[in-house]
Every structure is written in structure tokens, then in C-alpha cells.
């Protein structure tokens, strides 16, 4: 969903391939015949939904892919894109519903391509990924069961990667000042001016200060792992049991967007997931308990990790809201997509602080405890 260092955003040029140029790219680089193509929404990359005709002129034999064109800043780090793609392939083999790349005509998983002429030429890393079917979580009414399963998924994903994935370029996931790593909440001070002077800014300043005082000194006590880092309600696809349309049972059919991956901590993934699951919920304060229960069924938290959870969720809200405001100033034409989270995000963050940490934690921890005791939730 996001780029690496927002401080370099002014030099980050989002790709601007036309559908015709994207079609030519697929046919030239991957050797496939395009039967239909359409643009997909994206944060700072460019994505196209591509239908491939296996037999020219035979539309019903089409396969579906996503053409992913990475922005020119991130394209300068092919080692990171390589390891992200290898992780997707690894997870697919491990039984997670993640996309896999279609190889180029040269047998590679990606290709560096140019757009423009002369001094205006920009280079973009291009991949063709399998298209995953399903509806995004943002389009459904969540329930305790699916929230529990998403928490479980987040823990399983990080645990599997941390314990089993090995690659020569894995060190590239140590991303330092990467703005979306939850450890870097204090870096928001560089972009907070985008909020103007209002009550929103006052809350974020409070979050940043508490984060410095209470989280940063304790980071070394949290258990480290590889984080997906962006399990939001638009990056998780679901399908349902249509046998019962009145009470559909959802299961995860796709995990999207691995561009925010970095080394972090198990409790980071949990906090990020809780925050994004709150966004569309009709009862957002209750969400955390169900996600926590699912997560702890795989990776139980330590006392210190539990104590940090409220501020970590607040920190992720602050990251999403501040960076969206800042980036929409740079790219006003993409403001509608950039500000998706802000529609309800501010309301939820302010609500958390109004209710208070102790009361919110009580809701979360008692709900999670009910699962452990096999009580109805």
C-alpha cells in the first residue's frame, strides 16, 4: 500500500503507463496475448488487471493476472523486490493463498522497464502476478469468527516466515527508516504539518510522545520476526459458503501486497491487523479482542507485549492518517484512494483516547480470555 521513505516522496514518481503501453509491456516482456486490461487502484505503484487469451481470439480460455509496475524509487532496490516476490512464492507452497509471478520470456520473475525519453526516462520494476479471486474484507460485515481467523492468519504468516524462510537477500528486510515500520512512529514529526493546527494533530502529538516514552525503550524486549506489515481490509480477500447466503461463512482466499514487509516484532503485526480490522467495523472497540484471541492461539503475547498493544494500535492509526494527509498533498489526483482509512480512522483513534487505555484493554483482554475458556463471545 505504501512507499518506503516518505521523506523522498517528492522524487517518487508513480508510474503512468496507459492501458495500451501496459498491454504492449505484457506482450513484449512476458510473451502473452492480452485480451482485456483495466487499471486497478493503488497507493504509489501502478496495477492492471490483465486477461490473457491462450488461443488468440478465444476469450473464454483467458487466464487472469495482475501487472504490477513498481514506482521508480522502490524500483531502485531490486534486492528487496526480489525477496518480497520469493516470499510470496514460498508462502504459496506453504499453503497460504498468495500470488505467484509469471516468468518473463527470459525466465526471470521481474524485469526493469523504462518509460519516457531522454532526461525524462524513468525505470520501473515490472512483475506479472497471478490474479487472486475473492471479495475484499472492506466489502463485508465482519463477525467474530472471521476476525479470529484473521488474527490467527497474521500470527501463522509471521511465524512461518520467521522460522522457515531463508534467502540470501533476506537482510534487505532490515529497512531502517522505513516509514511504515511501526518502530518509526516518532518519524511522523517530519510530516505532521500536513494535518494543520487542530484536535487531530494534538492527539497524534500525544501518541508520538507516549510512543517515545513507553514503547521505544522496550523494543528490545519484544520478540522479533518478519512482518507482512499491511494486513488491511483491502489486502485480504475472502470467499464465502454460498450454501447459506443468510449466514455466510467466510474463509481467506487471498493475501495481497507484500511491499511493506520488514523485520519487526510479532506484536507489531497484531497491532497493525487490529487497527485495520477496526476501520470498517460497526463496533470497532470490540474488534481487538477477537483478533487478539486468534493471534494468541498461535503466538501468545508476553506481558510486556500486551502492555504495549494499545499504544501500538494508536501508533498505526497515526501513521496511516498522517502519511495519507501528507501524501495527498503531493498527489491530489489520488486523494480519494489515499484517504480511504481517514474516512473512519480519525473517529476510531479519537474514540480510543476518549474511552482510555485501561477500558479499551479490558474489552480486548476479557474477550480474548473468553475464547481461552471456551465461553460464548
Automatic annotation (TrEMBL):
GO terms for cellular component: cytoplasm. Its EC number is 2.7.1.81. Pfam families: APH (PF01636). It is found in: Cytoplasm. The keyword Transferase applies. It is an enzyme of class 2 (transferase). It comes from the Eukaryota. Keywords: Cytoplasm, Kinase, Transferase. Its main location: cytoplasm. One of its GO terms (molecular function) is hydroxylysine kinase activity. Transmembrane segments: none annotated. Residues 42-281 form the Aminoglycoside phosphotransferase domain. Catalyzes the GTP-dependent phosphorylation of 5-hydroxy-L-lysine. Belongs to the aminoglycoside phosphotransferase family. This is Hydroxylysine kinase. It comes from Chrysemys picta bellii. The gene is HYKK.
Amino acid at each position: 500500500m505504501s512507499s518506503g521513505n516518505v521523506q523522498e516522496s517528492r522524487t517518487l514518481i508513480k508510474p503512468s503507463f496507459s492501458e495500451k503501453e501496459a498491454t504492449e509491456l505484457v506482450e513484449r516482456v512476458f510473451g502473452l496475448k492480452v485480451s482485456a486490461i483495466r487499471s486497478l487502484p493503488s497507493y504509489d505503484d501502478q496495477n492492471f488487471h490483465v486477461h490473457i487469451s491462450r488461443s488468440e481470439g478465444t476469450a473464454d480460455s483467458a487466464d487472469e493476472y495482475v501487472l504490477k509496475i513498481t514506482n521508480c524509487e522502490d524500483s531502485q532496490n531490486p534486492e528487496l523486490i526480489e525477496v518480497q516476490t520469493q516470499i510470496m512464492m514460498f508462502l504459496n507452497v506453504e499453503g497460504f493463498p498468495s500470488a505467484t509471478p509469471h516468468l518473463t520470456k527470459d525466465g526471470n520473475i521481474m524485469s526493469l522497464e523504462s518509460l519516457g525519453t531522454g532526461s525524462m526516462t524513468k525505470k520501473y520494476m515490472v512483475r506479472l502476478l497471478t490474479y487472486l479471486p475473492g471479495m475484499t474484507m472492506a466489502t463485508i460485515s465482519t463477525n467474530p469468527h472471521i476476525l479470529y481467523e484473521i488474527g490467527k492468519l497474521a500470527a501463522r504468516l509471521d511465524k512461518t516466515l520467521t522460522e522457515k524462510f531463508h534467502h540470501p537477500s533476506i537482510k534487505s528486510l532490515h529497512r531502517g527508516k522505513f516509514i511504515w515500520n511501526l518502530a518509526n512512529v516518532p518519524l511522523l514529526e517530519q510530516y505532521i504539518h500536513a494535518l494543520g493546527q487542530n484536535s487531530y494533530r494534538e492527539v497524534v502529538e500525544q501518541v508520538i510522545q507516549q510512543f517515545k516514552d513507553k514503547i521505544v525503550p522496550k523494543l528490545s524486549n519484544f520478540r522479533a520476526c518478519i512482518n507482512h506489515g499491511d494486513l488491511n481490509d483491502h489486502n485480504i480477500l475472502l470467499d464465502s459458503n454460498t450454501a447459506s447466503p443468510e449466514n455466510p461463512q467466510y474463509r481467506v482466499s487471498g493475501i495481497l501486497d507484500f511491499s511493506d514487509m520488514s523485520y519487526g516484532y510479532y506484536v507489531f503485526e497484531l497491532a497493525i491487523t487490529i487497527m485495520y480490522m477496526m476501520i470498517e467495523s460497526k463496533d470497532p472497540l470490540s474488534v481487538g479482542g477477537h483478533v487478539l484471541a486468534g493471534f494468541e492461539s498461535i503466538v501468545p503475547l508476553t506481558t510486556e507485549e500486551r502492555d504495549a498493544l494499545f499504544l501500538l494500535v494508536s501508533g498505526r492509526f497515526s501513521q496511516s492518517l498522517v502519511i495519507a494527509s501528507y501524501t495527498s498533498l503531493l498527489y491530489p489526483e489520488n486523494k480519494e484512494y489515499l484517504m480511504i482509512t481517514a474516512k473512519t480512522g480519525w473517529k476510531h483513534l479519537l474514540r480510543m483516547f476518549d474511552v482510555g487505555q485501561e477500558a479499551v484493554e479490558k474489552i480486548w483482554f476479557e474477550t480474548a480470555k473468553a475464547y481461552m475458556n471456551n465461553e460464548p463471545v
